[in-house]
Prior knowledge:
17 helices; 14% strand
Amino acid sequence: MVSLEDIKLPPHNIDAEKGILCGVIMDAELLYICEGIGLAPEDFYQKEHAFIFRGIKTLWAARKTIDVLTLADQLSKDWVSDVIGGTDYLYEISGFLLTSSSADEYAKIVKEKSILRNILKVSQRIIGDVYEQKETFDILQTIEKRIFDLTQNTGWDEVHSIKELLDSRVEDYMEIVDHPEKVNDKKVMSGYHNMDEMLSWFKPWELIIIAARPSMGKTAFAINILEHTAVQQKKAVAMFSLEMGAEQIVDRILSTVSGVSMTKITKGRLESEDFSNIGEAMEHLSGTKIFIDDKWSGTIPQLKSKIRRLKIKEWLDLVIIDYLQLMSGSSTGYSGNRVQEIGEISRWLKELARELEIPIIALSQLSREVEKRVDKKPQLSDLRESGSIEQDADAVMMLHREDYYDPDTDKKWLTDVCIRKNRNGPVGEVELMFHKETMKFVETGKTGYGE
């Protein structure tokens, strides 16, 4: 039987914390194991160890050597060197193990103890809610959210046998045969038939990049996809914008749905017929599940938190981010290396799409190199600060308007959607006509498939 004396302190294992810190100092490759189980500074019970692990991760993100001297220097920069006991304590920790072979086990112990402490905290909060005698339904909703947050941060990933996967797929195939009409209900489509055929629609684990030079219409194109997905398909769509305000986005959506010129809306030159059309569009849009956030900080942790809360509250089918180059990474150790930082952001977005099972569309700028060539059609290499964007993305679509470079062309307002990468199908081009008055892209029916 557990006595009161045994439960005064929350679950922890100081030796295991020292073991993993020593192991990482001896062999930095152990950080891959730490990342695999989701070990974070907050998982350490002793605050000194949390500061040390945060310093280690900062050095790792900056691709710097990890040893006692570099770590001591980093902790000094973080103003926590005195808190952890200075270099003497780092030397003490670095000599804790004779070999790093068992350090991965220590990492799992630290994570497990952290999970137990989180369970304890959640349980205490639930008890507090009950004693406050809040509304029963509100308490149940809060419990559900807290349990979801708890289970999403365990760091444990299941490994499935092929038999399990095949059994699951058989059920999916049977569902298609028995209820073919329900298949389209599960699809998230762009609304452009030829493009959807090439991409085989947007899937829950995909990262899709829409890239273009300024003024090509990438935000308008993304809003068109949002409008079709939310209005026509009745899906839940969230747009996180660092480029435009929520009011501007709403104006564009209203223009697209109502057919009223964007110029009339922005300049306030509305006639009685326009008011009527806008009124109908507003009534129609009010029943949709469109969520717009223009106040977020641009960091991945905040984005992840906001999406998770939305998914619990409303469920989500698609996320759109405008745009990638305005986001910031989770680490401060890049020292101006924007390529590495953008690479981290794209990896995080891909992992976020997989974890939350939501397709994510991220807008991206193209570099000026495209304008230095005779052939202005963009290629993958034109992705600005590309890093690993093209590697992480499942699909990359690039917008190109010939009249942007040649005002005398006979292809006025025609836009080529160049699908330069498609993990699940062919690459090629789809031609759209851009109606500037209502910021709307429509299909012309022309398409070209490549390999």
